[in-house]
Amino acid sequence: MKRNAGYCYTELADVLRAQIKSGFIRPGDYLLPENDLSSKYGISRSSVRRALLELQNEQLIIKHPGKGTMVTYSSDTSPNDHNELLIVCPSPSLFCTQMLPVLIPIFEERCPHVKIRVFSISYRDSLLEELSHLGVKPDLVVVSDQQFSMMHPDDFLAIPPSIVQQTNIPEPVYKAFLSHDTLLAAPVTYSPVFLAYQKHLFHRHHVALPHPGWTTEQFIETAKQLTLDTNQDGIIDLFGIALSSATTRWPLFALKKGADVITSDAEESSFHNWVQALTFMRDLIYLHKTVPIFPIHDMFLIQQLFDEERIAMMLTSLLAPARITGLTPYEIAPFPSEFDQGGMLIANGLMIARNASHPALAQLFVEVCMTSEVQAQMIQGSRFLSVYDSVNQTNWRKQDLLSLGVLPEQIVYSKVVGGLFTPGTRISELEAQMKKYWSGMEQPVDLVHRLHHR
């Protein structure tokens, strides 16, 4: 639907006002020419002129014939109640603990008159309603693609296309935040789920490193060779691989076999691939005994044991390994050649609350995060991924991008976690349904029948 001219004019005035008062555009700087503003925000030149006239009447700008429109507004450098931005983080969120501490200082440096406050709360479907009862009025809400699928679209504003480089974002990541073809969350970063390994353990125990093209049999044999009683007390204290019952981890094996979304009308080939993957994992645990059983339901314990070199391989994401600093770096392993069909992604985005106190300022935060420059700053010196392929190609080795499965020709076959199950699926209930399987008390084929409602 085409927006009316009045709305366009007030919206642009709000956006420019927020940029000026936040310090993003400094006194003495010139605004973009009218033609460029019209093109960038997709509105008419007459609406641009009306917006500029309002800002001129507020003494925020002045027009210099032949030069352009210059910012004249000068503000106190100390933040105040009128330019505080509130970001709500549904927890647990590795994006909030790992990425926001990187992004917030970048934004505050560019917008010195803004104070950012972060409010963490356990995720629930009634999140915004509960916040309202607490008197908390968020401007921005951080979401994973899985949480996004449970949000109510009417509670949020659309993300303007002008601030997102859609053609440079992997299609599965961009589509993860669409609701009826409208982008409701700006994808800021994402991570594939991948196989990580501790190279030092392989060297210490004289085991060949994972390599492109290795077979499933070689993978299993490697896991066996690294399942050891290292102190000769009769108890296994080093395991070849760890598996997690979290839906952000184990489905990768099925997707790598070519499985599709779990639905009652799924194709027989997809159904068979889910059975194969679950059988493979069960065998790793109970037949080959290369997986520690207790940590299966505790993803953070798996991470800790991996950091302590008690586990040689694990499925993880790029955000998780950075949780603890100063530890032995992990390596990215290619999957066995029989697991080369697809991949699984975890995407993270920012949503602008419809009832935000400062919607224009919230949009500015998103706009800053979505620039190529900030995306590059965000991942420099880290193992994070930008949502822009061009930024990743510059900052990552191609072999690592290949092992992660995120090169353009690979990632099109990946799926986000939030899109693996039918809409409305409660993950906690799904994980509860799998307890018998993880205990070795249910056949994989029976579990897959139940999950597909067959």
Describe this structure in words.
The chain has about 450 residues and is α/β, with parallel strands linked by helices. The protein folds into 3 domains: about 5-70, Arc Repressor Mutant, subunit A (Orthogonal Bundle), CATH 1.10.10; about 80-190 and about 345-395, 3-Layer(aba) Sandwich (D-Maltodextrin-Binding Protein, domain 2), CATH 3.40.190.10; about 195-315 and about 425-450, D-Maltodextrin-Binding Protein, domain 2 (3-Layer(aba) Sandwich), CATH 3.40.190.10. Helices cover about 40% and strands about 15% of the residues. The protein has 21 helices and 15 strands. A hairpin with a 3-residue loop joins strand 1 and strand 2 (about 70). Helix 1 crosses helix 3. The protein starts with a helix and ends with a helix. Residues about 1-5 and about 320-330 have low confidence and may be disordered. Keywords: Cell membrane, DNA-binding, Lipoprotein, Membrane, Palmitate, Signal, Transcription, Transcription regulation. Pfam families: GntR, SBP_bac_8. InterPro entries: Bact_solute-bd_prot1, SBP, Tscrpt_reg_HTH_GntR, WH-like_DNA-bd_sf, WH_DNA-bd_sf.
The CATH superfamily of the largest domain is identified as Periplasmic binding protein-like II
The third-level CATH topology of the largest domain is: D-Maltodextrin-Binding Protein, domain 2
The count of domains is: 3
Count of alpha and pi helical runs: 21
Please tell me the overall pLDDT: 88
Enumerate the spans where pLDDT stays under 50 for 5 or more consecutive residues. 1-6, 322-328
**Strand element count:** 15
Q: Please tell me the CATH architecture of the largest domain by its name.
A: 3-Layer(aba) Sandwich
CATH C-level class of the largest domain: Alpha Beta
* Morphology call: elongated
Distance between the termini: 41 Å
**Strand share of the residues?**
15-25%
Return Rg in Å.
25 Å
Keywords: Cell membrane, DNA-binding, Lipoprotein, Membrane, Palmitate, Signal, Transcription, Transcription regulation
GO molecular function: DNA binding; DNA-binding transcription factor activity
Protein name: HTH gntR-type domain-containing protein
InterPro entries: Bact_solute-bd_prot1 (IPR050490), SBP (IPR006059), Tscrpt_reg_HTH_GntR (IPR000524), WH-like_DNA-bd_sf (IPR036388), WH_DNA-bd_sf (IPR036390)
